[in-house]
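Posting for a labmate who doesn't have an account.
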Amino acid sequence: MVDSWQTCPSCKSKNVITRGKRFYFLLFFGLGGVLMWIGLMIYWPLLIAGFIVIIISMFSFMMPRVNRCRDCGHKWKP
């Protein structure tokens, strides 16, 4: 989600993206799913690692929202 009204405090750019809890949940859940799939097909220890990453994805709802500038990479809390 792009918040065009908020500018980067570092470079004053309006090219800002907000990443929240849903982004991190989907990131960890997807990574865990891929690891579990590779673990089933190729290398079984990745199955365990994928399961652990999926469990960790449930705790991603405790992470705060973060704004990130797409131009300079600066991150800050909204």
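Reply:
Got it, the structure tokens are right above this. The chain has two helices and three strands.
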